[in-house]
Each structure stands twice: as structure tokens, then as C-alpha cells.
Amino acid sequence: MQENSVLELRGIYKSFPGVKALQNVDFTLRRGEIHALMGENGAGKSTLIKVLTGVYPKDGGTIHVKDKGSVVFHSPQEAQNAGISTVYQEISLCPNLSVAENMYIGRGEKQLLSWKKMNADAGKVLESLGINVKPTQQLASCSIAVQQMVAIARAVDMDCSVLILDEPTSSLDESEVAKLFKLMRQLKERGVGIIFVTHFLDQVYEVCDRITVLRDSKLVGEYSIQELPRVQLVSKMLGKELDDMADIKNSAPESKNNKDEIVYEAANLCSSEGIRPFDFHIRSGEVNGFTGLLGSGRSESVRAIFGADKVTSGEVKVKGRSVKIRKPLDAMKNGIAYLPEDRKRDGIVGDLSVKDNIILALQVKNGFFKPFSKKKAIEFAEKYIEMLDVKTASVNTPIKSLSGGNQQKVILGRWLLTEPDYLILDEPTRGIDVGTKVDIQKLVLKLASEGMSVTFISSETDEMLRTCSRLIVMRDGKQVGELTGEQLTQTTVMNTIAGGSAK
Amino acid sequence: MSTWKKVLGVVLTAAVCSVGFVGCGNAKNDSGLIKVGIINNDPNESGYRTANVNDLKNTFTEENGFDAQFSYSLKNDEQISFAQKFIQDEVDYLLLSAADTAGWDSVLQDAKNAGVKVILFDRTIDASPDLYEASVVSDMNKEGETAVEWLKNQNLDKYEIIHLQGVMGTAAQKGRSGSLTDTASQLGWDIVSQQTAEWNAEKAQQIVQSAIDAGKSFNVIYAENDDMAKGAVAALDKANISHGVGKDVIVMGFDCNRWALEELKAGNWNYDGQCNPFQSSYIVNIIEKLENGETLADKTIVMDEKGFDAATITDEDVSNYGI
Amino acid sequence: MSKMSTKPVSKGGQLLSSILHHQLIIPIAALLLLTVFNLIADPSFFRITLGTNSAGHPVLSGYLITIIDYGSELAILAIGMTLVTAASGGQDISVGAGIAISGSVLLRVLCGTESRPETLQAPIIVAFLVCVVVAMIFGAFNGALVAYFKIQPMVATLILFTAGRSIAAWINNNELPIVSDETFSFFGGYIPGIPIPTPFFIALICFVITWAVLKFTTLGLYVQSVGINEKTSRLNGLNPEMIKFITYVLLGLCVAVCGLIKVSRLSTINYSVIAKDIEMDAILAVALGGNALSGGKFNMGASILGAYVIQFLTTTLYKFDVQSDALSAYKAVVVILLVVLSAPVVREKLSSLLKLATSRLRSAKSPT
């Protein structure tokens, strides 16, 4: 084992029925470093983490932990006892308990602790880490970011030498991410080694010291952050030289012009979810977007368009014809499709097969008494699996066993199958790898060039700027600006979001 | 519907007596009516209970000189709170068919202190006999003995019996099973199958079906109630095994449901033992004596219960005793 | 990039593990176990004889006939119970009481105001249709509580579970109507000339209808999708409340058919004991079919097979003179086994053990 390393994985193998998930993967974590684990979806990042923490048994290879020698973990608990703690993307704490209870639950040594002492101890730990939350507060009442930090505080308090953060930032906004990074740097100074799994390139370059890249279940290499510029990182992840992402829009065929037919038009539209009534329209072949901070009402606006929330007022015209859209089925019948923000909660039907997930919307639109034949359904599914390059063992694989990006492609396929005139994509690129992100952006522009109208929402402004020709800016449930043409720059968008001059 | 006619008959008889004694009795309350609180089990419990409840309802009426309140529960604690309410209402008599034998001491002591006379019917309780005036009961053991005695008198060459028991541990099951088990071991009768069908016709049908499928040989069905006997007969019919008077299998039931007595009359069954639900005439009789200041010879009054033989049953029996 | 990247690992191992993960494995294994047990204990269990019943018509008899006879009503209930379980993630515990109600309605219409008429007061088909409507209304009541008032299915159906038998008694003024017409007994017995019990044919009709409904409508997809993810289903244009509601109404239909068979068996009814504890058997059938009781994906065939397996078990226990009040204890053992076997951990372990065994075998065969 190297002098300053706290964790060494050598020659790790792992396979599942039909899939080789890890092949001869090495990984080294040093004391006091933040080490990014990068790769496309399905490259083997999650599997590596799960093998390391004892969720899956490994098929081959060794794991060395400092001061403990070669180890085999049979459960996450054992890994934790050896100082390896994990904080997952989905918080795995108990929302109905208090912060302090969550920090001490399931830890044998503090069983007989008094409540008072427990709260005091928790308070000390939280304060030392600069986490601003009362130990007695119920966890569910804290923001996601704070919950995540509590999970980290719990891990830190258990004397961990290795902390694994699996996509901790995907549901945080910028200021929350900044807080998290501050905490990570603090831990680094204490000598904790941190494994950071993320899709956000910016974030990698902001906090990490070192990067390990996986591709197709194999190790590509380990690099220090200085020796690997972004473009190279991306090309290593994809295994090919990437055409400059900034050029996507320019390379895509320009959408025709703004004199096209107005596909959808709403006046005074409002839902029960706390947005102000707004006007909105979109032309055929147009790509526009709603932008704003998390919670600004951008998702709620498109949900109102689709009838996903309770619509309280508004006049809606589709292709000039007055229609009532009260529920999703109304919207679907009018050629509108909506890919929701929360893939797991609103998008996938986890236990159903990829095939059933793809045909679901069209089937519902088609009606109760006209089920597709098995042959037809497979045909549909295969068409979109091929078109969107979905990686799945078969059409009958349950969608939940696919990686996040592939799930998203399946959902996208579901809506494309309905051949909508107007496609709403709410955060289609969240939590998925860079390659798929580019694919989706390209697809959006391609669809628009074929005449489809698309509304695109993303937390990443540059992504929006690349794809949209018109941006609607939201703040506190209200439309505060509309940007087109020359106004479409990072600065203007930021200023408008912040309430600057662009109004 | 002659069931009701028969009940009416009982009612009229009761009416005659009660009018008689109300006239000369020392009726206590202003209206001249005797106040009675009646605590019974749920009328839906069984056909027996339905007949019992109707019998009481038709007897303790204003025309017969009673101011009666009825309450029903299958739960002991609820029954006890009904009793407390009746004591507060200052009833003259408390008539009780207890759901459970235990737990009655204190409330009956309260009744005694308040001068409320308690008469138990249908079921006994574990409490000092000082706490109640009388109890009107069926003797389940005797029901069993009568039936087994009848079976013995059939003088069969061999006794191969399928014994269908009620819900295990109930007074009726214990009484009706006891004498059969004893006699069978004494006289060397062969009980080919002994199973609880839990008073349930369908279960009885499955049990007898199973015995037939297994090729067991039997010539008596001893079912502890009519429903189970009916289920057993359904299984026999399916297998073309003849039953009834002069046939291959003797069918015995209990409770004297009207439809069961009709089966008896038609010769499809052989025997049906009575479990008398008509306690009101006995109770009225007791009240009458107490109102006249007489003392009762016995605290426990066992009702007359018959056993009917298919060979001797008459149409009158069917209409008088069918419930 | 291959669209279906199935890298062949070991064909045999894969086949084995796919068999082991197939839903039908549980009921089939249970069925095999019971069959083997009976074959060893007493092969005469499987004997079927042709005889005549007391009316002089030919009938088949034997344990297997008893199983398809009594298992059929359970299988019919299991159809509805599977849908309800899949859509609402809970079970209807009022089906026993529902059978009492529908049976009572049926007799009430057949017998009119008299409790024991000489002739039928209404055609059986009319009585049955009334009974279907009533049972579906009670199903709708349960369904409304679950779907629209968001009450836990067990709690919602507890209402009818408690009150149902009293309602059944009330429908007939607490009297016990008896149908003397012979044709009425065909439904729970035999049609003259056909030696197989009618309930089995009724069940077959139900299976065919169910198969057709699942094949020619999208009910299956909708029910599963609602059971797995209500929010997603709504966003895909479904009305989850409506679908849950419909499953309860359909269960009501199954209850009515069961009620017909049950009261026809004895031509009368006993409100307090008819179809007693049948809800537990129906739920067990769904579980034995490998369907998650928490809802979601279902396999109708497996549930139906599960129902017959339960009756197989019951009949076996009767055959060996197990006290019938101890039956539920044996069923409890089955439930425990089921829960353990269907736990993913155990299945994973089993399949890896099997894989190990086959690979050992293979390496033993091919000398290196």
C-alpha cells in the first residue's frame, strides 16, 4: 500500500447475469483528497461504489484499507465500521425523526445516551461543520441540502476516513452546492478522503484534486485535475473526440422563422401550485425554455400547460382552436407531451418493462379497448430503443434496472412515440452523463427542425442557451422577463433571474 | 308462516298467565307494568338465537303487563354496562343470557343491593347463587345422552360413526360430544372420523366428502347441529349414499330447525335433538311466583327438551317445535 | 453500441436463474411438493371414480374432483383479489361478508316474501343479475372509500367485514330461505349428465372472460401501472382513482359469482358461517401466486393456480384427518414459507447455489 493512501482497490471484477459491470478496475484514494469518480451512465461507477461498501459481493480483486489490511465487506454496516461512509443521492435517513436522532440512530455505542446529551453532541458536531440547523428540528422540515449535510455530519461523526458522496448535488441549487463544497473542503483539511460521484463538470473542477475515469466497465485512468482539461475529460469519458459542445446549436439546422403557426397559446393560465397567472405561446419548430432558480415556478408553469396540476384559470388555444386542458389526457389528446422533472417519482413505472414504459402514453391515448398486440408493442419499443440508443438487456427488462440516463431515454421515447406537436422537457438532462446530455440536446434541435415545438427546462443555463431561441425567466412564481436573440447570454439571464435590468 | 303462529301460541299462553297475575300482583310502577331489562346475545348469532329473541320479544310486551327493554351484545363488557344501566333505571327484573361466564359478581351484587331480581336464562355464570333468583337452562349433557340413548336403541349390527363437532369448547359441543365419546368407548362403537366443522355446513360437507373419497365405511352421521347434518347429507347425495329411515346411513342433528324437522318427517334424516329456545314461559312462570311471594323449589330450572325420531314425528311436532 | 448488450455468461445458469425468478415457480413448486407428498403417503389420493349421485346422474368423485370443485370458487375470488391487490396495494377483507350479502340477495329474489316457496318466485337469471348489481354496489362502496377517500384498503373493507353478515341477515329478515327447485342446485353441484362439478365450468368461464379482458383491453397495463406508480400513471393520462375503483367493482362481480355457487351448494344460507375466512384464502392465493401484496405487477394465471393449490392443501389436510380448526395453523406455516421464499435475498442465494451446483457438475463432466 502506498504511503499516504487510505484506500486501495486492485483488479476488481464484478458481473451480473448478462452484463460485465466491472473489469479489472483499480482505484486509489489518498488522505485528505477529493477524488472524482467519472464516467457515463452504465460505466460502472455505482457498481464500484456498491462493491466497495459491501452492497454487492465482488467476483475478484482486493480491497485494502489503511491500518486494516485486505478486507472483505459483507454489508454497508461493516464498511462503515471500517471507516467508509456513504451518502447517497437519495437521502436514506428517517424524515420523521429529529436531526440529532438521525445522527445517532442505529449506532450501538450511543444507545443509553440521554436525549439532552445527544442533542448537545449533535449540536457540537453540526456547529463544527458550519451546518446551520437545530439538532431538535424534524429532518423532513429541513431542505434537501441540509438533509444531505446532516447525513454527511453523521458519517463524519462516526470517524470515517473515507466518505463517499454519490451525486450529492443533483437536487441542490447553487448556494446549497456552495455550502456543501465548503463542508467538503473542511473535511479534506481534517484528512478525510472523499470520493465524489457527479455529472457536473464545473463542480469537479471546482473542488476535486484528482479524477478517475471509468468507461464501459473498465478503468480509463487516474489523473490529477491540472493535467486533464475539460474537453479531454469528456472525450475520455465518451471514448471519442467530442465535437465542441458549444457548437451544437450552430451545427444544427436553423429552425425556420417565427412566422410559423402558433401551436399552443395560453392566456391567464394558472394552477393551484402557487404560480401567478401567465400568458404563453409557442410556434411550430420553436424551442423555448423556462428558466429561474429552483422553486421559481418554472416546473409549475409547464405542469399547468400539461394539466398535471389542478388548473384554476386560463384560456387555452391549440392551433388556434379553443380547448379545455384540465387533466393530462386532455393535453395528450391535443398533441402535447410532458417529460417530468422527477424521473423516479413521475416518470418511470419502475417494475414494468422497458417495452411497457415506452408504449404506456400512446396506449392510454389509443384507448381502453384497443391494446397493442405484443408484436406491435415490441416493434414500437425496438424502434425507440434503437433511435435513442437505449442500453438495455432486452425490451422486457424492468426499467428500474436501467441506469438513470437510459431510463430518461425510455421516457423520452414514450413521448416521442405519441408523435406530439408540442414536447415539454422538464430537466431532461438532470443526473445523466455528459454524452447523453449532448445526445438529448441534439435530438431537441433535430425535432424542432422537423417542425416539433419544444419547451426545454434545465438548471444548467448554458444548456438552455445552447438549445433555446427564447427564454422565459421566472422568479417567485412570476414571469419576470423574456429573452431572445442577442439577449441570450449568461449575464443577461443571470441579471434577469436576480431581478436586474433586463425587465 | 306457522313459526310465528306457534310463537303466537306461546305468547297467548304467557299473556293469559301474566294478565292473571298483573291483576292481582303488587305491580310497583305507576303504569302498573313490571319493568324488565333483558340482556341477550346478538340475534344474528344463529337460528336458535333468533328464535330465542323473538320468543322473548313476543312475551314481554305491554299487553302482557311488562315494560321491557332489550339489549344485545356478544361481548361481556358491553353486557355488563347494559346491566349497570338497567340497574340505574330501577328495573324490577334483570333477565340475562351472559356472553361469558366470568366477571358478573360485582354488577350482580349491585343489582341485589338495589333490589333488582336477576333471572339467568339459556346460559349459567360463575357467580354465587345468592346473586340471582333462578336460572333457566338447557342441559346439553342431557341432550347428548338422549340422542346417544336413541342411537343405542337402534340396535345396529355395527356402529361406524362420523362425528361432526361444533366449535370446540362451547357448552353445546362439550355436552353433545361427551356422551357419544363415552358410550362409543364403552360399547366398542367405531368412530371413523371425528372432526370439528365449527357449526358450518360447508365444512361438514368437505369433511364427509373426504371420508367418502378415502373409502371409509360408515353408517351413522352424528352432527352436533342441523347445519352440519345438512352439509353431510349434501355430500352423501353426491356420492349416492342413501340416508334416512331404513337406508344405509343414519343422520342425526340437533336444534330442531323447522326445515330439519321436515327432513325428518320426510324420512331423509333419522333423529333431531331439541335445544329449547323458548324460555320465556319458564321465566314468566318464575316472575309470577316471585311476585306472589312464593319461594322457588329449585334455583336451576332445566327445560324439557325432546328428541325427535323420524318414525314417530308428527306434523304438529314440526309446527310446534320447529324454530 | 449494441442496442441489446446481452453478453452470454452461461446459458444453463441463466436459464436456471430465469426459471427461479419466474413468478409461477412458487405455486408450481408448492403443487409439486403436495403431489409428491400425497403420492408417497397414499397414492389412492389421485384415484377418480365414476359413480352416480342420488338423483341417478353420473358424477366423478375423488380428491382431485373435490379440489377442482371447491378450489373453483376460490379461484374466481382470486381473480378479483389479484386486480384489487395490484391496483391499490391492499386487500379486500370483506369478500366473505360480501358473499353472505350476495347469497342472501339471491335467495331473497328467488324466494320472494315467503321463506320457503314451493316454486321459484323469479327466474334464476334475474335473481343472479340482481345479486350481481348488489355485490357490485358493495364493491363500489369499498372502491370509493379506497380510491377517492384514500382509506387503507384493509381499514376501508373492515367496515363491510364487520357489518356485512348482519346486512345479509337483515335482507332476509333473519329468516333462512330454502330453495326447493332442483335446477338451482346445479350451480354448486352437477348438471344432469355431466359428471364434472359445475363450479369448475363456472370458473372456466370466468377464466376465459378474464383472459379476454386482459387480452383485448388495456386493463392489465393500467392496473399494474397505477399500482406501481400512481403519479406517473396520472401524467400518462390515466385516472388512478377510477382504475382502483373499477378493480373493486370487478371484485364485487367475482363475489356475486361465488355467492351463487355457495348458496347453490346447500340451497340455503347460514349468514354467520357462509364463506367464513374465505378472504384469507383468497389473499393467500394471490400471495402464493407470487404477486406482491403491496401491489404492482401481477400474474393472473399464478393467482388462479395458487387458489387451487390452497384447496389442494386443505383437501390433503382433511384427508389426513387434521382437525379442521387447526387448518389455519397449517396455512400459517405456508404463509411463512412463502414470505421467506419470495424474499429477494433468499431467491438470490438459491439461484447462486444452483449455479454453483451446475458449474460443479459441468466441470466434473469435462475433465481438464
Please tag this protein with its features.
heterotrimer, A: 503 residues, alpha/beta, Rossmann fold, 3 domains, six-stranded mixed beta sheet, 18 helices, 20 strands, globular, C: 368 residues, mainly alpha, ABC transporter involved in vitamin B12 uptake, BtuC, two-stranded antiparallel sheet, 14 helices, 2 strands
Characterization of the model:
The complex is a heterotrimer of chains A (503), B (323) and C (368). Chain A is of the alpha/beta class. Chain A folds into three domains: 5-240, Rossmann fold (3-Layer(aba) Sandwich), CATH 3.40.50; 243-335 and 421-503, Rossmann fold (3-Layer(aba) Sandwich); 350-419, no CATH class. Chain A is built from 18 helices and 20 strands. In chain A, the strands form four sheets. A six-stranded mixed sheet of chain A has the order 6-7-8-3-9-10, sandwiched between helices. In chain A, a hairpin with a 2-residue loop joins β19 (470-475) and β20. In chain A, α13 crosses α14 and α14 (374-387) crosses α15 (404-417). The termini of chain A are far apart. With 323 residues, chain B is α/β, with parallel strands linked by helices. Chain B has two domains: 2-138 and 277-292, Response regulator (Rossmann fold), CATH 3.40.50.2300; 140-273, 3-Layer(aba) Sandwich (Rossmann fold), CATH 3.40.50.2300. Chain B is 44% helix and 18% strand. Chain B has helices spanning 2-24, 47-59, 76-88, 105-113, 140-153, 171-187, 201-213, 226-238, 258-265, 280-291, 315-321, and strands at 34-40, 66-72, 93-96, 117-122, 134-137, 160-165, 190-196, 220-223, 250-254, 271-273, 300-302, 307-309. Chain B is elongated, with a radius of gyration of 21 Å. In chain B, 51% of the residues are buried. Chain C is an all-alpha fold. Chain C has a two-stranded antiparallel sheet. In chain C, α3 packs across α11 (278-288) and α5 runs antiparallel to α6. The chains are: A alpha/beta (503), B alpha/beta (323), C mainly alpha (368). The B-C interface holds B 1, 43-47, 50, 167-168, 193, 195-203, 205-207, 209-210, 212-215, 227, 230-231, 234, 236-242, 257, 259 and C 44, 51-56, 59, 61-63, 66, 70, 114-116, 165-166, 169, 174, 176, 178, 189-190, 262, 265-266, 268, 270-276, 314-315, 318-319, 321, 323-325.
CATH architecture descriptor of the largest domain in chain A: 3-Layer(aba) Sandwich
Overall strand count of chain C: 2
| Main sheet specs of chain C | 2 strands, antiparallel
CATH fold category name of the largest domain in chain A: Rossmann fold
CATH class of the largest domain in chain A: Alpha Beta
Strand order of the largest sheet of chain A: 6-7-8-3-9-10
**So what's the overall shape of chain C?**
globular
Counting copies of identical and different chains, the oligomeric state is heterotrimer
Dominant shape of chain A: globular
Classified in CATH, the superfamily of the largest domain in chain A is P-loop containing nucleotide triphosphate hydrolases
The number of helical elements of chain A comes to: 18
Number of helices of chain C: 14
